[in-house]
Amino acid sequence: MELINYTRLTPTFGGSFSNGWEVMKKYFMYLLLVVIIVGFFKGPSGGIKFSSDNMDWHLLPVILFLAFIGVAYAFLVMPVITYGSKLIYLDAVRDKEIDIKKMFDGFRNYLNVILANLLHTVLIFVGILFFIIPGIVIACRLAFVPYLVMDENLDGVQAIERSWKLTKGKGFTILFMAIASFFIGIAGIICLIVGILPALIWIHSSFASLYQAALNKENGTIDY
What we know:
Blueprint: H1 13-26, H2 28-42, H3 60-76, H4 78-93, H5 110-129, H6 133-141, H7 145-151, H8 156-166, H9 171-190, H10 196-219
């Protein structure tokens, strides 16, 4: 099976995962590099873990400072890399030449990326506070925010409004894809741990396929 013409993708669970699989196979080495780069940059944002047992409390100011640096890094650097990676997956779905340097294009659109990610995170967090379910709904409806910021150069508010519109009627598809992605990830870990790498590539390629399919539906290039 070959890649579906991206203008003919339909926003379905099966279609997205099927095309995501083909994207992974065709661009595996490039997308593997993307996963490795994202993992490398995520390393410093993993947080600081320590135990209060036998801890020298004189070091508390240093620990708090390092924790602050970690949080700042997570909110001011990591979004640029993760948003940039979405653009690479989207290029792969569109069968375009892959340019890994695009992962850092977010620095050219830095303020939009950071503010969009912050607003996105806050909305989901507030939704979770209200009995969790609203948070899940918001997370599903805002799933396209990173793609829209990078693909259409939208600011945070515009990307959120547009994502809400694009995902109308697709909330359950996104939710079921997220659930399936969890089990794909678990299966990847079980496969000698390194299986998580192709699992991540497949998952991200599938969500990029769904985003493109939603655009197709909006633009009328498919009859669905």
